[in-house]
Amino acid sequence: MHLSELWFLLVSILFVGFVFLEGFDFGVGMGTKFLARTEQEKRILLNTIGPVWDANEVWLITAGGAMFAAFPHWYATLFSGFYLPFVILLLALIARGVAFEFRSKVGAKQWRLAWDWSIFLGSLLPPFLLGVMFASLIKGLPIDGEMNMYAGFTDIVNLYTVVGGIAFVLLSYLHGLMFIGLKTTGEIRERAHRMAQRIYVIIGVVVVLFVSLTALYTDAFREKGTFLIPLYSAAIIAYACLYYFMYKKKEGWSFVSTGLVLALVTSSFFVALFPNVMISSIDVVNNLTVYNAASGSYSLKLMTIVAVTLLPFVLAYQVWSYYVFRKRVTDKEHLEY
Amino acid sequence: MEELILARIQFASTTLFHFIFVPLSIGLAFIIAVMQTMYVLKGNELYKKMTKFWGAFFLINFAVGVVTGILQEFQFGMNWSSYSRFVGDVFGAPLAVEALLAFFMESTFIGLWIFGWDKLPKKIHLACIWLVSIGTILSAFWILAANSFMQNPLGYTLQNGRAEMNDVFAVLTNQKLWVAFPHTIFASLTTGAFFIVGVSAWKMLKKADVEFFKRSFQISLIIGMVSALGIAFSGHSQATYLVSAQPMKMAAAEGLWDDSPDPAPWTVFALIDTDKQESTMRVEVPYMLSYLAYEQFHGSVQGMKNIQAQYEQKYGPGNYIPPVKTTFWSFRIMVVMGGGLLLLALIGLVLQWRGRLEESPAYLKWMVAAIFIPYIGNSFGWIMSEIGRQPWVVNGLMRTADGVSPNVSTGQLLFSLISFSLIYTILAIVMVYLFVKVIKRGPHEKLPEDVSATDPFNTEGNNYAFK
């Protein structure tokens, strides 16, 4: 395996990990508006993700850093090409991040209302924008021979990509509901179950619609059908199992199922892209690939050693932190957020 | 052209804003870790209270530092895509390591520290804050490794039209890194120490919780004194580095148009005329620049005209002189701030030793104002360092004008610049408001969640207060 292929895999894993972990954070953030009814319930929701959201977000930052180091051209083309979406993503993540910390520091109603909106929009916009971005990546974008992307509004925002964005938002919300089921007790836990059952069918329909549009609007199935069909089949099976697990009230397994669906859908983007990292709608020779966008072999080798050494520790202490905070959050205890 | 100016304004303002929070986070994490260590070792509840009280500032500050940091990680690609393509190989690597090694560590263990007070054994909980502190310091190291490449590019080869890394040891043993890293860490510790000292001085003046704040004052003053000394020594080693590696920045920082006499005097003050290329009304300290540059009392320092001629031969026609006035005055402001801190710390130690801190209200008032001194020094230090490197983004390799994204329009830049400025202004106001609130509350009162229960206008608060 070529080292740049390994790094493509690593960047994909970082994005998949981010979507799996921060996915439920985003879902819980949306739940503060859609699910919680009282101030106390809001705070319980925020405290379920309190200890972990920051580290989950680092998966995205690391994905960006890894792209910068291993695929400078991919990093440069993507981030400058999607300039405005990234500006909005950053504004959303900035508002959301400080909102967690600031919200409960002052009791005034307007104060909390402002930060509640920051948390809600900050949890809704990022999965939407990422969904739009991933979808437009496999659809292809106007990239010139200098690897610069000059995208107009409709290149990024169109029926296909918007459905992709909505699918990501809905899946994140469902994933968040599963996490809430897993981490709370009593009334709000029951309500999360009921809400999930109510929106189960519609979310399934949106995701299937998105996959159908992928077949219609992109070359993905023609080029990578042999990989994508099993991948989406696995996602459909996982989604079917979810129904069974919800019915049987198996919260752990339900959470794993929604996570799996999100992870499989996200991986499908990278499978569809490979060996490209950015597809040009102008001319295929302008495509950025894992080979022409990559760093030199010295850098890749060095970064491989660093990543292989560090990642086990990172995973170990992150898993440990989830173990430390494994108990359900109740209103009997001190709520930090 | 407009795009370039806007992109530069955005980078400068967002980065300077980010660096308001970074030093305080690094400094406070360390001092809090020291306080909690004293609590765990001595079992004295006072130190636990200290840890929690100063920890409240740390967490508010840290949150802003984290979110403004995400922007830092992304904006190289967003606004400086040509730069990113050119240097990603060697500049991106330390950024990736920073994320893998430092960001994961900070973010995971800060979660464990905030939420783990009752869930973790005392010593493991203490280890968490130390790991956060180490994480913040590692983060500084790796980002400075990246910045040092911009100042003094080493360990690369030009290949495929890009700077590709070929020697990581050269990248990591860059002299610039090893003079900038201690300087930045000492400046950060000083920022944290003077913050605690200043707030404590305020509370001592108000005669509130005097024991608590006197003890906080004493611990931090010692850390402040040691780190202010550290700033001075590491600052001196920066000067020796500059003369050999970035002579143009050094000459600009001295307002030196022609080669200096031998021995070279240090300029305290001068009127700089960039059109006529001369500095008049010089007030000088004899021998001192020779000493700063070469650690001996002789030796001449090259002037800008001379270096400009050399660079024209080497890099072709062009203006290689950075904005001289900005570089010159930033340097002086930074030095004066550093000297002021050292002096204030020294006076404080004498007063403390004589046991007369509380009877010196004038000094305490000075120390309240001194909270801001490190911030001014930090900012102008970076302004000098980055402006003094112009017109280069990577010294001698790539001009700043060539690094900007060609596909980001003026309209897009205006939108981002205005929206980032707006949200950052709000963050700054909110943060100051929260800091003042925590200061007023002091270390002994109830936790903030109960504030809502006592707020007569908050009916929701009443609902659950009586549950």
Topology diagram in text:
The complex is a heterodimer of chains A (337) and B (467).
Chain A: H1 3-34, H2 39-49, H3 53-70, H4 72-81, H5 83-102, H6 109-139, H7 153-156, H8 159-183, H9 186-217, H10 220-247, H11 251-273, E1 276-278, E2 288-289, H12 297-324
Antiparallel strand pairs in A: 1-2
Chain B: H1 2-42, H2 45-79, H3 81-115, H4 122-151, E1 156-159, E2 162-165, H5 168-172, H6 175-205, H7 210-245, H8 247-254, E3 266-273, E4 278-285, H9 288-294, H10 304-315, H11 324-353, H12 361-369, H13 373-387, E5 392-394, E6 398-399, H14 400-403, H15 410-441, H16 449-454, H17 459-465
Antiparallel strand pairs in B: 1-2, 3-4, 5-6
Helix pairs in contact in B: 1-2, 1-4, 1-6, 1-13, 1-15, 2-3, 2-15, 3-4, 4-6, 6-7, 6-12, 6-13, 7-8, 7-11, 8-11, 11-13
GO molecular function (chain A): electron transfer activity; metal ion binding; oxidoreductase activity, acting on diphenols and related substances as donors, oxygen as acceptor
Family (chain A): Belongs to the cytochrome ubiquinol oxidase subunit 2 family.
Membrane topology (chain A): Multi-pass membrane protein
Model description:
The complex is a heterodimer of chains A (337) and B (467). With 337 residues, chain A is mostly helical. Chain A has one domain. Helix content of chain A is 78%, strand content 1%. Chain A is built from 12 helices and 2 strands. A two-stranded antiparallel sheet of chain A has the order 1-2. In chain A, helix 1 packs antiparallel against helix 3, helix 8 runs antiparallel to helix 9 (186-217) and helix 9 (186-217) packs antiparallel against helix 10. The longest helix of chain B has 41 residues, at 2-42. In chain B, the strands form 3 sheets. Chain B has a two-stranded antiparallel sheet with strand order 1-2. A two-stranded antiparallel ribbon of chain B has the order 3-4. Chain B has a two-stranded antiparallel ribbon with strand order 5-6. Chain B has helices at 2-42, 45-79, 81-115, 122-151, 168-172, 175-205, 210-245, 247-254, 288-294, 304-315, 324-353, 361-369, 373-387, 400-403, 410-441, 449-454, 459-465, and strands spanning 156-159, 162-165, 266-273, 278-285, 392-394, 398-399. Chain B has 2 domains: 2-231 and 325-465; 247-322, no CATH class. Chain B has 17 helices and 6 strands. With 467 residues, chain B is mainly alpha-helical. Helix content of chain B is 73%, strand content 6%. Chains A and B meet through helix 2, helix 3, helix 4, helix 5 and helix 12 of A and helix 2, helix 3, strand 2, helix 15 and helix 16 of B. Chain A: Keywords: Cell membrane, Electron transport, Heme, Iron, Membrane, Metal-binding, Transmembrane, Transmembrane helix, Transport. Chain A: One of its GO terms (biological process) is aerobic electron transport chain. Chain A: It comes from Aneurinibacillus aneurinilyticus ATCC 12856.
